[in-house]
Each structure stands twice: as structure tokens, then as C-alpha cells.
Amino acid sequence: MAAAFTAIGGKWKLTLLYWLAHGESHFAGLRRRGAPITPKVLAEQLRELEADGLVERVVTGPVPARVIYRLTPYGATVLPVVEGVRVWGEAHLQRTDGQSVSDTAMSCASSIV
Amino acid sequence: MAAAFTAIGGKWKLTLLYWLAHGESHFAGLRRRGAPITPKVLAEQLRELEADGLVERVVTGPVPARVIYRLTPYGATVLPVVEGVRVWGEAHLQRTDGQSVSDTAMSCASSIV
């Protein structure tokens, strides 16, 4: 991927940043959003976001659910960009009428900035 | 992928929109940008961008190179969003110092809007 687009251009990264913008989450919580992302790909995308300093993996206590993922302060700097994509994407959905925005799991109807 | 992020969230879509913002291109021209994208994936991403009305595939004449890809007027509406990602991405590269922005093939240093 062209260099400048690498950090947030991965297939699920904008979506993950959007989800985490609403609050920290366990891995299972991200899985439960209902999007068709495999655990392997989810783990991979989270690792890459972590490597780029956008997301942090925090060990909070013993099992179960002892690890949470959350945006770093640096990750928060990308939210206006994510919001720009979201707003355009919402208008695109209205235009194409291709997918119901009332699908809770997949909806990106709420603003994050 | 969460609905609103589908149309431009694919792994290579932002990059392809960025490249096409600089002018129409043959398939081979996009290949020659030197990014590590396979012909199969490139064709797939172009097909999806075309299905979403962002890119059009125009037959211009006999072989060789009779097909070009170019942004549609609708595709041009997404360029401010792509530019937002690019600007953030450039700053991110400066911060991480991870990749040379002087690599012509992969550089996204020039503004498109």
C-alpha cells in the first residue's frame, strides 16, 4: 500500500478505529460487533494498529477478559479523518441504498468527533 | 466491513483513488506504480470501485492498452476525504520515520485537492 495510506488503509482499520472511538473493548467485544471479520484478521489488524501507536492493548486483570484494546491519545488524532470517511460513507449509502443503516452491528451512523 | 466504510475502506482503495486523482490510467500503468499489489487484487479492487460508481472503465480503442480507468465525477467527491487520510498519513510517516517518502512509486506526498 502506498506509504501514507498504510497505517489506516487496511481493510478493517477504519472500522476498528471507529468502534474503539466509542470506548475501549475486549477482543470478544469487537468480535461481537457482528462484522464478518475472522479472529485471525481481527488480531492481525489490531496488532498493526498497535505497532503504529494508534491502539493500545492493556492487561487489566485476571481472566476472563483481562485484555482491553483502546485508542491511544495519538490514535485519537486520526478520528477527524475517520469521521470524514464515515460522513462520506453514510452519504454514499443513502445514494446507493445498498445497505440498511439500521443494522446495529454494522451501522456507522453516529458521529465520533 | 462496517457499512459506511465499505466503499473506500478496502486495502488498496484509498491508494487507487489517490493514484487516479492524478489522471486516468491503464491497468498496466497502475501495476507499474510498484506497489505490492497482485493483478488479481488490483482487478478486484477496481471492480468494486467501479460497482460503487467511483471509478469508470473506459474502452478507448484497439489493443494495446485500450482500456483506461478514471475517476467518475462522483469519485471526485471522495477526494477531500482521501486527502484527509493522506495528510494524516504523511504526518504519521514523519513521526514514525518508518518509510522513506522519497520512494517515488509509493510516495503520496503531493496534494490532490
Report on the structure:
The structure is a homodimer of 113-residue chains. In chain A, 47% of the residues lie in helices and 11% in strands. In chain A, strands 1-3-2 form a 3-stranded antiparallel β-sheet. Chain A has a domain at 3-76: Orthogonal Bundle (Arc Repressor Mutant, subunit A), CATH 1.10.10.10. Chain A is globular and about 45 Å long. The longest helix of chain A has 18 residues, at 79-96. The mean pLDDT of chain A is 83. By secondary structure, the first copy, chain A, is mainly α. In chain A, strand 2 (55-59) and strand 3 form a beta hairpin. In chain A, helix 2 (13-21) packs across helix 6. The first copy, chain A, has helices at 6-9, 13-21, 27-31, 39-51, 73-76, 79-96; strands spanning 25-26, 55-59, 67-71. Chain A binds chain B through residues 1-15, 18-19, 33, 35, 37, 52-53, 77-78, 80-81, 84-86, 88-90, 92-93, 96, 99, 101, 103, 106-109, and chain B through 1-15, 18-19, 33, 35, 37, 52-53, 77-78, 80-81, 84-86, 88-90, 92-93, 96, 99, 101, 103, 106-109.
